[in-house]
Amino acid sequence: MSDLSERIVRQDIGIAIRNVTVGVMLAGTVAFAVDQWWISVVAIVVAGLLSASADRSRAGMWVLIAIGTVAILGLGWGMLRDTVPTGVLPLVLIGMGAGLALNRVLFGVLRPVPEVRQRREDAA
Predict the structure, then answer these.
(1) How many angstroms separate the CA atoms of 74 and 79, rounded?
(2) Residue 37, phi then psi, degrees to nearest 5
(3) Phi-psi region of 89 (alpha: psi -120 to 50; beta: other; left: phi over 0)
(4) What are phi and psi of 7, to 5 degrees?
């Protein structure tokens, strides 16, 4: 594995661990919606697919940004209007972290980091 690939893996796994950690810490402070566990499963799938597509194309990166922005605004609006319980936020954070980690383990540890992602990281 090249130095660039190692840096990408360390960076993404670090972000994933921080997401899961914040989700777990938040779960201890809000009314954790354990009965809505499926939200984490959806977040894992969506985050994994979006991060995989962002690794492979510029369009995938824009889709990730767009869907992430809409999701953040939707969650914020729903919590502000009391239609989304705050207990789902830890589930979303944990799912996002797990989805990102799953993508990076699959494409970074088990298989090579996609070249588009390597070029983007190298340019930064």
Answers:
(1) 8
(2) -55, -30
(3) alpha
(4) -65, -40
Could you tell me the two tokens for 50? 């979006």
pLDDT digits (tens, 9 = 90+) for 40-49: 999 999 999 9
Q: How far is 103 from 47, CA to CA, in rounded Å?
A: 9
Reduce the DSSP state of residue 2 to 3 states and report it. coil
Which pTM does this prediction carry? 0.89
Reduced to 3 states, what is the DSSP secondary structure of residue 99? helix
In tens, the pLDDT along 53-92 reads: 999 999 999 999 999 999 999 999 998 999 988 889 999 9
Residue 72 near residue 20, CB atoms below 8 Å: no
